[in-house]
Design goal:
binds zinc ion, OB fold (Dihydrolipoamide Acetyltransferase, E2P), 6-stranded antiparallel β-sheet, 2 domains, alpha+beta
Length: about 150
């Protein structure tokens, strides 16, 4: 098997075969939806994952392992472009499906750090809608009730 080329050469990534292990989905301490698990590299070493993700991530992730459910990804191999501290890209063994995690991560960050309603930058304790929009929405509902 010839490994695919690295894309993030500037970051000095390397391409290795990794076995996905102990994959799970759930909520971490702060209630953020997270993927858990890790890659066991055939050469040596293990790289854990505990990232805040969305549905798009799961869809693309499953496709790389050429299967239908998240559970079935366990113990399957994929090419992993990574550095010691970060996973940039995963690619199916046959090279047909790739998931550029770095690219996904960049757009996901934009999505979560801005209010979905007014696009204001969110504070740390705000979810996906800023406090002002929530207050405005409550006020509208409250006013409607008062009119009646
Ligand atoms: Zn807002």
């Amino acid at each position: 098997m010839k490994p695919p080329q690295c894309r993030y050469k500037k970051e000095q990534t390397e391409m290795e075969l990794g076995k996905w292990e102990e994959g799970d989905l759930g909520f971490e301490d702060h209630g953020i939806f997270t993927i858990f698990g890790g890659f066991d590299y055939l050469d040596a070493g293990h790289q854990g994952m505990g990232w805040c993700i969305d549905l798009e991530f799961i869809e693309k992730f499953i496709r790389v392992f050429d299967t239908y459910t998240f559970n079935k990804c366990n113990n399957k191999l994929a090419w992993v472009e990574h550095t010691h501290g970060r996973i940039y890209r995963i690619i199916s063994i046959d090279g047909k499906h790739e998931f550029d995690i770095q690219k996904w991560s960049d757009s996901f960050k934009d999505k979560i750090y801005h209010c979905k309603n007014c696009d204001a930058v969110l504070g740390e304790d705000e979810g996906t809608i800023c406090k002002k929009c929530i207050d405005d929405a409550f006020e509208k509902v409250y006013k409607k009730k008062e009119v009646k």
